[in-house]
Amino acid sequence: MAKDYKKLAKDIIEHIGGESNVVQLQYCMTRLRFYLKDESKADTEYLKNLSGIVTVMKASGQYQVVIGSDVGEVYEAILNVSNINGEQTSNTNKQNGQKKLLNNFIDLISSIFQQFILVLSATGMIKGLVALLGVFGLDEANSGFYAVLNAVGDGFFQFLPVIIALTAAKKFRMNVYTALAIAFALVYPSLSDMAEGAPLYTLFEGTQFSADVFTTFLGIPVLLPPGGYYSTVIPAILAIWLGAKVEKGFKKIIPSVVNSFLTPFFTVLVTATLAILVIGPIATWGSDLIGLIFMAIYKISPTIFGALIGGLWQLLVMFGLHWGLAPIGILQLTEQGFTPILSNSGSASFGVLGVLLAIIIKNKDKNVRNIGIPATIASVFGVTEPGIYGLLLPMKKPFIIALISSAIGGAYTGFFDVVVYRIGGLGVFSITNYITDSGQLTMNFWHRVISFILVTVIAFAIQMFMKTPQLDSSVDSSKKKNKNQTLNNNELEKSRKQDIIASPLNGEVKNLSKVNDEVFSSGSMGKGIVIVPKKGIVYAPTNATISMVFKTGHAIGLTTELGTEILIHIGLDTVELKGEGFEKLVQEGDKVLAGQPLIIFEIDELKQKGYELDVPIVVSNISENADIFITDEKQLGHGDYLFTVVK
């Protein structure tokens, strides 16, 4: 009979002081980690004696309810029966201090893009080839080769909101196909075509925020950002975030017998409609406001204007707010044949280029170079998304260096009043936009060339002298290759009554009772031992099946051929790292051999961040009648004898 997780979840919520007492909920391999407003409201004794709960602990500002192997199911049940804000690995304001909102935003963007960044880099390189063809006079009107290649390279970028929906749905715990339906609505071709022909009327006519209305929805004006939602990032993320909230709400109120089709029906209907009606006006008027502010700055000081545009252009594009300046620049081109407005943004791609060059020269990590090399090539042609979302944003500091360098370039072009005479290619190919219509290479052209070189050199030099952060997933790929298996097949022969377990780590042996975690030291999680590792690789301690891998990589469960369940927990409270510094080499359901690498972790990084590196290794399903015989050795290498479970 299936366990009633919903009943247990409701019981836990009631006796921790109710939903209103919960600031945040996380879970790790064995326990729920609550951050409570007032721990005195929790009935600890009741919870300790509640069936389904192993024990309750208070540590590190957390109220920890130890569940055991069913913790994931209980966690999901709590989210389903409540409005508690839960996330498996998120940080809260009580956890190691407050994380800045900007860092949280960057982490969110990075995690969404990391899953498809290599494809983004590949298509970015194709866009670069298309730009090269454009230099030789080819375009869609005169070349089928150009048209096909442009579709191949630009298609992924045009429908980026759909790809974002795919990964954001997993991040926000939403049905993937429902999220895709919302994203497809945003990029539906007819939606962008609405802004053609004569407008019905104009909102706020005569003001900076005037907006033409081409159609309405039940009398509500439909406003779309210039160019629609193609290639946008933030609107798509906001739409899926909203969709996840709406979906969760409908799941609670719609009867289960019709939930499977009515929940996606109402979720798509409500979310897609709200996204179009709400995000559109926000993007439109936000762009207008940006344009108003920057033009006021330009009148005061072109140099300051240039610095701000150069430094902030990538962020403006990310939020879709650059459209507030583009129409002004295009209008100036039409009326006077040149514009300084659009020239200052040209530095942005070269700031990214300089930083990427330094990163791929300094960093020999295979994962970084796999992303960095094609991203660098793409940035030469002005396609910066692969570099920004693949490396610079996840690494944070390099992104800041790129912005600062671009700001210097923007200030330079602003000071010398550099203008563009036409709108053309991007990156290095944009240089032709600074040649006069008569073909003269004036100082305007040479100042642009100097600014490109200046920005690239500054960004490159700063990054070369700065320590390059590692990607969360970066490890030396050579560590994955290990063929040494100290325990041979004869040593692994099992009788019906005993399991021989080898050490999964190199390190010092400690008694389980000495570990600074009551859940393990008390024996609540089972009998076992602790190893303080010297190397950051966890190996399979015997032939087994992977029964559970925590997605942050800090813990793993194995079931041996005789049914012994072994839990290996890397460090204490390392769930807080959200997977940073861990790499999983196996997944749930894999069959592994003794000595096979399972997890790689950055041991020095964990030490620097102050985490205790004790690794409890316990038998979680040992019976009262079973015995465990543990080695007397104080130092072990992986594959050395650790203990025997006699059943």
From TrEMBL:
GO terms for molecular function: kinase activity; protein-N(PI)-phosphohistidine-sugar phosphotransferase activity; protein-phosphocysteine-trehalose phosphotransferase system transporter activity. The keyword Transferase applies. GO terms for cellular component: plasma membrane. It is found in: Cell membrane. InterPro entries: Dup_hybrid_motif (IPR011055), Glu_permease_IIB (IPR036878), PTrfase_EIIB_Cys (IPR018113), PTS_EIIA_1_perm (IPR001127), PTS_EIIC (IPR003352), PTS_EIIC_1 (IPR013013), PTS_IIABC_b_glu (IPR011297), PTS_IIB_1 (IPR001996). Its EC number is 2.7.1.211. Its main location: membrane. The active site is at 28 (phosphocysteine intermediate). PANTHER family: PHOSPHOTRANSFERASE SYSTEM TRANSPORT PROTEIN (PTHR30175), PTS SYSTEM ARBUTIN-, CELLOBIOSE-, AND SALICIN-SPECIFIC EIIBC COMPONENT-RELATED (PTHR30175:SF1). This is PTS system sucrose-specific EIIBCA component. Coiled coil: none annotated.
